[in-house]
Design goal:
The protein has a 4-stranded mixed beta sheet with strand order 1-3-4-2. The longest helix is centred in the middle third of the chain and has 17 residues. The chain has a domain of 101 residues: Arc Repressor Mutant, subunit A (Orthogonal Bundle), CATH 1.10.10.2910. It is globular. The chain is an alpha+beta fold and 164 residues long. The chain contains 7 helices and 4 strands; from the N terminus they run βααβββααααα.
C-alpha cells in the first residue's frame, strides 16, 4: 500500500536541486481554475473530492499529520490537528497527487508538495489583492484559514513582506 507521510512539521528548505517551483504553482493554479475557485478560503476538501479522493479523519500515529493512500483513493488526516493544519496537510497531499509523486519519493517531492499547498491555499495574486484590506498577518491567516506561518511564507515568496 502506497502512502505519503507528513511528519507534522512544515519544512521549507532550499534544496540544492531545482524544485520546479513555477511548475508546482502552475499546477495549483490550474486546479483552482478548473474548480472555479476565485477567492479564499479555498474549499480544499471539495477539491480533493472532485479529484475522486475520499477525505477521512483518523487517529494517526504521533508525528503523522496526513497520509495519501492512492490505491484506496483516500487521504487520511490526523483528527487531533488544528483545522488550519489539516487544511495545509490536505493541500500538501493533493500536491503529491496532482504532481504525480511516487511513494516516499524524496525531499524534493516534499518541497514541491509544500510549494503546491501554499500556492493552492494562498495564491500570490489573491494575496497581493487582499493585502490592502487585511493589513496584518493574523487578519490574512483568518481570511485564508491558514496558519500565520503559512501567511509569512506566502508573503515572503510573493515579495510582499515589506508591505505589512
Amino acid at each position: 500500500m502506497e502512502e505519503f507521510e507528513d511528519d507534522g512539521a512544515v519544512e521549507f528548505f532550499e534544496p540544492k536541486e531545482d524544485v520546479r517551483a513555477a511548475h508546482c504553482r502552475r499546477v495549483a493554479a490550474n486546479v483552482l481554475k478548473k474548480a472555479g475557485v476565485t477567492q479564499p478560503p479555498v474549499p480544499v476538501e471539495e477539491l480533493a473530492q472532485s479529484a475522486g479522493l475520499i477525505v477521512v479523519r483518523a487517529d494517526l500515529p504521533r508525528g503523522v499529520d496526513a497520509l495519501l493512500r492512492p490505491n484506496e483513493r483516500q487521504i487520511e488526516l490526523a483528527s487531533n490537528q488544528a483545522q488550519v493544519r489539516q487544511r495545509f496537510s490536505l493541500a500538501h497531499e493533493l500536491g503529491h497527487y496532482h504532481l504525480g509523486h511516487a511513494h516516499n519519493e524524496s525531499q524534493l517531492a516534499e518541497a514541491q508538495a509544500n510549494i503546491f499547498a501554499g500556492a493552492l491555499l494562498i495564491p500570490s495574486l489573491w494575496l497581493r489583492r487582499d493585502l490592502p484590506k487585511y493589513r496584518t498577518p493574523g487578519a490574512l491567516a483568518t481570511r485564508y484559514q491558514v496558519s500565520r506561518e503559512a501567511i509569512f511564507i506566502a508573503l515572503k515568496d510573493a515579495r510582499l513582506l515589506n508591505r505589512l
